[in-house]
Amino acid sequence: MKKREADLLASQWNAEKMMTDPDVIEKAVLYETDYDKKVARIIFNIPEKLNGMPVAALERVGDLVKEAEADNGIKVIVFKGNGPCFGTGAGADELGHYIGYKSGNSAAEKKRPSQRQRMLPDRNIIFGAFERTVMECLKATICQVHGYCYGGHMQLALAADIVIASPDACFTHPAFRYLGPSPQDMYLYLENLGIKKMKEIMLTMRPLSADEAEKCGFVNKVVPADELEKWVADYAQAITMMPLDGIMMGKAMMNMIMEARGKGIGSMCGWVGHAWSTNLVYQPDEWNFLKERRDKGLTQALKERDAMVAPFFRLGGRKRKVDHD
After folding, report:
1. Which of 57, 213, 229, 252 could pair covalently with 28 via S-S, beta carbons 3.0-4.6 A apart?
2. Contact 61, 23 (CB under 8 A)
3. For the domain 5-286, what is the CATH code?
4. Residues 298-319: tens digit of each pLDDT
């Protein structure tokens, strides 16, 4: 039986900090099919953690996309989140640990992970099994976004075909706060946001509002929160009127054009760049996420980092002020 990437990497990352229990992972990402409507739904289901996913759950998302892609009864895949938001990416409690950083203070535990340890989880799971699988899926994909769409969930929205959002949706990647503007698939950011908006989001780390995302073409439509489900269903229904072969052939040709525009090298820049970025050297006065999380706990570390910038640039609130402290 084929082993999961999470199992293959268990000997290289900090396994004691990683959630890989199959029952937990299955409950974290639900899968539903509606054959009458020819729609599959992949649902993020850890609302108490704002749908912050174990890294192994991102691999499950990719597996479910492949399952839906091979199912002739499905034409459209909808991604949605239970609870207060769409999702906040990979769980911050696993960051660092999934590339091999240990949690103690001994010399062995403080040793920096090798480059091979850094590259494999990103290439094989984050950018491979997860993001690239969605980007290259031959079925139509729709993200139904409300509230936070951060981190890996933003990568998902960037890779999907269509994004429908409620007015409270906001988009960014918290890694920009920890590592700088490099550790992502810049092709997807550039294609979805344009060069100026991409640089603004990456350099300032601020969330992009739903209205801004619609104006730059990343979000297809912003709709009232109580109409979000209906709008997504209507989009899906319109797509399913096309023949399945036509959808899949069209998506394949779209992928060919995207490849010519830099899709492949963009994805590679993501996992190579992330390996570099997680090995950066901090100046004495610079904020170090892993150190602060270790010393103060995750919640307090993130709260203090958010308070370091003017309200407009903070991640913690959806209703962000334009004025400064």
Report:
1. 57
2. no
3. 3.90.226.10
4. 889 888 998 999 999 998 754 4
How far from 321 is each of 207, 318, 325, CA to CA, in Å?
Answer: 12, 9, 10
Q: Which two tokens stand for residue 194?
A: 């344009």
Cβ proximity of 157 and 149 under 8 Å: yes
How far apart, in whole angstroms, are the C-alpha atoms of residue 269 and residue 281? Answer: 20
DSSP bridge partners of 87? 149
- What is the token pair recorded at 174? 């918290």
Contact 183, 213 (CB under 8 A): no
Q: Which amino acid is at 187?
A: Y
pTM: 0.91
Residue type, 24: V
Contact 44, 51 (CB under 8 A): yes
Angstrom distances, CA of residue 266 to CA of 3, 138, 271: 27, 19, 9
User: Which residue, among 127, 160, 128, 131, has the nearest Cα to 143 in the 3D structure?
Assistant: 160
Contact assessment for residue 86 and residue 146, using Cβ atoms and an 8 Å cutoff: yes
Taking Cα atoms as reference points, which of 302, 324, 301 lies closest to residue 315? 302
**Which tens digit of pLDDT belongs to each residue from 164-193?**
999 999 999 988 888 888 767 889 999 999
Angle at alpha carbon of residue 234, lines to 147 and 130, rounded to 5° = 50
Sign of CA dihedral 302, 20, 263, 66: negative
Structure tokens at 76: 């459209």
Strands (E), the chain: 29-34, 39-44, 76-81, 140-145, 148-150, 162-165, 170-172, 208-209, 221-222
Q: Where are the domains of the chain?
A: 5-286
pLDDT digits (tens, 9 = 90+) for 196-220: 999 999 999 899 999 999 999 999 9
The single-letter code of the amino acid at 179 is L
Side chain identity at 166, as an amino acid letter? Answer: S
CA distance 231 to 234: 5
